[in-house]
Design a protein that fits this description.
With 136 residues, the chain is α+β, with helices and mostly antiparallel strands. Helices cover 31% and strands 44% of the residues.
């Protein structure tokens, strides 16, 4: 199976709530980075499958995602870059956010060794604080 197919399967697993499938595709020492303000519980750097599991738990606890759509996939060597869009609501504030994102997966021996997300972190942070920001 190609790295692209693995990433596509991970997105399908996320859509059906199968986090364990995603974790099984990660190297034991994976680095998982989602930059943004520390006021948002799932932003920050993580290392290892257990900490990545905590990331997914925080996302599930704090967000209602109405749309999470990977739209374009690019493969360059051992990396898969994905461009997409998300729209959701922060449960604690009731505020919504939306924006485009980019995900970069780096593979070694068929497992994800590094992940980095670039997103509308300001809009998400505003939604946590009671504001809302829209990105066209």
């Amino acid at each position: 199976m190609s790295n692209l197919e693995r990433v596509q399967q991970m997105y399908a697993a996320f859509g059906r709530g199968d986090v364990q499938f995603i974790l099984n595709g990660l190297a034991a020492d994976v680095t998982w980075c989602d930059d943004g303000p520390a006021t948002v519980p799932f932003f920050g750097d993580r290392r290892g499958r257990d900490q990545v599991a905590q990331f997914f738990q925080a996302v599930g606890t704090h967000l209602d995602l109405q749309e999470f759509a990977p739209r374009e996939f690019f493969v360059q060597g051992e990396q898969v870059i994905v461009l997409g869009f998300e729209r959701g609501r922060v449960r604690s504030s009731g505020r919504s956010f939306e924006g485009h994102w980019a995900h970069v997966f780096t593979f070694r021996a068929g497992l994800v060794t590094a992940f980095r997300e670039y997103s509308n972190s300001g809009g998400i942070a505003d939604a946590f604080l009671g504001g809302a920001r829209r990105v066209a």
